[in-house]
Specification:
Elements (H helix, E strand, L loop, with lengths): L13 E5 L4 E5 L5 H11 L5 E5 L7 E5 L11 E4 L5 E6 L6 H6 L2 H14 L11 E9 L3 E7 L20 H11 L3 E2 L4 E8 L5 E8 L5 E4 L6 E2 L13 E2 L4 E4 L15 E10 L4 H8 L17 H16 L13 E5 L3 E10 L1
Parallel strand pairs: 2-3, 2-4, 9-18
Antiparallel strand pairs: 1-17, 4-5, 5-6, 7-8, 7-10, 10-15, 11-12, 11-14, 11-16, 13-15, 16-18
Helix pairs in contact: 3-6, 5-6
């Protein structure tokens, strides 16, 4: 009997996502009719976007015009959050025709769609992988910024971190971070991630995100990775894999650059994506990006974020194929993601 009963507990096993997910843009009701017509025509040529009228259907973002020269873009057309706040680098110059302004948003909409797809992989509450990640500031002071882990497989072990010279239990650390809300970090701070695999299988990973300018970024060039301990089963730098029981620091102390918080002020979002299998397709997409300046340099302007995000979903889909129940009926135009195959942990902080 597969019928659910009232009060019965359920747990996510497979996440099914359509392959044709897009960005829904609502047209601001303050636009003139001809402006809405021109904007609709322009957006019809952008495959990542579909258009609705504001207030009539759910939407991801709003297309409109800045109210005055004191707003971002100086009265230009652009894309905004639903509360009317401008998206970084999403508002054009005053005087640009609405159709040209809308067509010029194609790249920004691709980046926003990439962010949407990556957020849809977040599964710290249902993942079967054993991952714990600590985001730490090491300059100008040493302190824990945030700590996340997969809750289904949470380890009861203690994690010793530098915090005012004394070790704190994980419960104390988690409580401290939770009470602090969204962390605020000054420009020029140096950060690193400590990624612990406390599961029983090797874990492959990617670190992708979006900086305060709204640009897609990546930390994936791997000569700067190092393990916190040495063993015969130490992580393979080439394959970006962490062996069971190992902890990896990203970036390491030998990195010539990387880990430094840069301006302008705003929000930074990072996604640590882990899998039991290599990210074959995502690696190909990342390899298309020109090499950076020095060991450990982040990619601060990932020109193909949508390709990378779709490749990540395809990699997780492929890794899940052999473990899915054959009795499941899943449409061919969908991604089917086994929660025991991957884990995505999301980090959000404000730069001032």
């Amino acid at each position: 009997n597969n019928q659910l009963q009232v009060g019965q507990l359920v747990q996510e096993a497979v996440r099914v996502l359509p392959r044709n997910i897009g960005i829904t843009v609502a047209l601001d009701g303050n636009l003139e009719r001809i402006e809405r017509v021109d904007a609709t025509s322009a957006f019809s040529g952008i495959s990542a976007a579909s258009v609705v009228q504001a207030g009539e259907q759910p939407a991801d973002y709003l297309f409109g015009k800045a109210l005055s020269s004191t707003n971002a873009g100086g009265g230009g057309y652009g894309i905004f959050y639903l509360d009317g706040q401008p998206i970084p680098n999403g508002v054009g110059e005053a005087g640009v025709a609405v159709k040209s302004a809308a067509m010029g948003l194609a790249g920004k909409l691709n980046t926003l769609l990439a962010a949407k797809l990556l957020r849809l992989t977040a599964n710290d509450g249902s993942s079967g992988l054993g991952i714990r990640v600590s985001l730490q500031m090491i300059e100008p002071e040493q302190k824990l910024v945030m700590q996340l882990e997969t809750s289904r497989t949470a380890s009861s072990s203690r994690v010793d971190l530098v915090a005012e010279g004394e070790a704190k239990s994980q419960a104390e650390l988690t409580k401290t971070v939770a009470e602090a809300g969204v962390p605020i970090l000054p420009v020029g701070s140096r950060l690193h991630y400590q990624i612990e695999n406390y599961g029983d299988q090797p874990i492959y990973f990617l670190l992708l995100g979006f900086n305060t300018n709204g640009n897609a970024i990546a930390l994936y060039e791997l000569p700067f990775l190092e393990t916190s301990q040495t063993s015969e089963n130490s992580p393979s730098i080439k394959d970006a894999v962490i062996a069971p029981g190992e902890t990896l620091t990203l970036p390491s102390a030998v990195a010539s650059v990387g880990g430094i918080v840069s301006g302008p002020s705003g929000m930074v979002e990072m996604q640590l994506i882990c899998s039991r299998s290599p990210f074959t397709e995502a690696s190909k997409a990342l390899d298309a990006v020109p090499s950076r300046r020095g060991i450990g340099a982040p990619i601060d302007d990932l020109f193909n974020p949508l390709d990378v995000a779709k490749a990540v979903l395809q990699d997780i889909h492929d890794a899940s194929a052999n473990s899915l129940d054959s009795s499941l009926s899943i449409a061919a135009d969908s991604y089917a993601l086994d929660v025991n195959t991957w884990a995505t942990l999301s980090f959000l902080y404000r730069v001032v």
